[in-house]
UniProtKB/TrEMBL annotation:
InterPro entries: UCP032025. This is DUF1489 family protein. It holds the Pfam family DUF1489.
């Protein structure tokens, strides 16, 4: 199973903003200062986006390219897949995510958070109630 990573979608206010950026072309490119140590394991995995303290969507990781300035480009598939939101604290940079801990993809037409809003679900989970 490929390794995945999480990152805050800090330039996007909404999922639709994120979708427009990701799906503008066949590939989306994201710059990072350092290449992940386990980058070879991540090709074919996903980058999970954090919004409003929850993992909400993912993009497939296609590869890593070094830039002339010494930074790295993470190449992402130009398709945003919505996932069943799970609470996730904000963090700087990126973090690894094992596939066994990743949220499931939402089926076409399925709406996230129908039953419980994400922030409330996070608080209830901290209390051990869900």
């Amino acid at each position: 199973m490929p390794l995945s990573m999480t990152k805050i979608a800090y330039t996007s206010r909404t999922i639709e903003d994120l979708r427009q950026w990701v799906e503008a072309d066949e590939e989306a490119h994201m710059r990072t200062r350092y290449r992940p140590t386990r980058h070879a394991e991540m090709i074919g995995g996903s980058l999970y986006w954090i919004m409003d303290h929850a993992l909400v969507a993912r993009c497939e990781i296609l590869g890593f390219d070094e830039r002339p300035d010494g930074h790295w480009t993470i190449r992402l598939a130009g398709r945003l897949v919505l996932v069943d939101p799970i609470p996730r604290r904000a963090h700087q940079g990126w973090r690894y995510l094992e596939e066994t801990k990743a949220p499931r993809d939402l089926a076409p037409g399925e709406v996230a958070g129908d039953a419980i809003p994400v922030r409330l679900a996070g608080r209830l989970a901290k209390l051990g109630l869900i």
